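Ticket opened by: R.M.
Priority: normal
Category: complex prediction / small molecule

The reporter submitted a protein together with NAP and asked that the result be attached to this ticket for the collaborator who will pick it up next week. Submitted input follows.
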Amino acid sequence: MTQKRLAILGATGSIGCSTLDLVRQHPDRFKVIALSANTQGNKLFEQCLEFRPEVVVMGDDKEAKTLQDRLNQKNINVEVLTGASELLTLVQLPHVDIVVSAIMGAAGLRSTLAAARAGKTILLANKESLVMTGNLLLQEAKKHGAILLPVDSEHNAIFQCMPPNYTCGVRPVGVRRILLTASGGPFFKLSSHDLDKVTPEEAINHPNWRMGKKISVDCATLMNKGLELIEACLLFSMTPDEIEIVIHPQSVIHSLVDYVDGSVLAQCGTPDMRIPIANMLAWPDRIGSGAKPLDLISLHQLEFYAPCHNKFPCLQLATDALRFGNAATAVLNASNEVAVAEFLAGRIKFTDIAWINQKVLGELHHLAADPLEAIFEADNQARALALRIIKMN
Ligand SMILES: NC(=O)c1ccc[n+]([C@@H]2O[C@H](COP(=O)([O-])OP(=O)(O)OC[C@H]3O[C@@H](n4cnc5c(N)ncnc54)[C@H](OP(=O)(O)O)[C@@H]3O)[C@@H](O)[C@H]2O)c1
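Result attached by the on-call engineer:
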């Protein structure tokens, strides 16, 4: 068996650590060539000790210097590079087979695009890359022979339920609809009035999944499902009308594909991100993930509900952004990143996130998405406007 050689971007995050756990379980199958982190030097140091990459990239200069010194003291031969541009070097290393794109937010876009242009197999967790660029990432992947494999649990579930030999970006034959499930987040049952008072600590306390803070807040506002709706439309070449969002609080059915003959295929499992990551790391083979087996008897019951758009307006904003076209999805993503960061910092209320996003999208949805730099310009403008709105209120 040939070992697959990995570059893991965002190695210190929730997805990065789950990926490394799979490497730990399957050292014969996977070898870590490169890792990246932003500020968590200590965690990256521990990962270097255990996985011995050739090269790592740190966002923070000071942390990078400390990390290099500590590795030198231990006589561990790892090259430490600094800064966002070095992520591009890392994904283009000729002996890297798989790039795990698991940086949080828009910061993951340039490296994911570079991996596509380098013709790599990309395990895509960073949904923002697709949300921001629309079809561009898929087109670049196709042009350069890169393979995009979805790690997001719902998209991975859909991918697993697609016809054999399915390629992302292609309209699947015989598929009528996709049912995209959502846990509903921690506030699914809360009244609109009570939503006004929720704290960041409550918002990041997801009932089923342990994730980074930003995506956890997105799950609570349902913006994550909105971003996933955009991601699904692009990855599976479907329209928003062909994708139904279903709230399923147990997070056991990770999504379903409805075929024209009435057959509905679902992928199920315990809520553990190691399952979709293992599926894509070993693809087209199957390997153990370490996740607990699904125990349906002890679950007793699976529930399904329609989403409440009045309580969670972010979901509709994502559909609106898709319909606007242009750079609207990038604008929405940028505004949301700012609003979530401000909420986590305690400067705005949970319910402010949605109206700030709505205002920014309303004002900037017309911005152009072509060429690529226009997307970054739209991202910048949306961030600046979101901050201005927050300051004025
Ligand atoms: N967690 C999940 O279960 C899950 C599921 C589906 C999809 N995703 C997607 O996967 C991505 C990562 O999510 P996560 O939950 O793993 O996030 P996370 O735990 O917050 O980790 C984010 C990672 O990105 C790095 N990072 C953050 N900002 C950066 C920047 N400006 N430049 C370079 N690196 C940066 C972090 O480094 P430091 O640790 O040094 O800050 C960390 O390694 C997101 O796009 C998310 O939507 C996550």
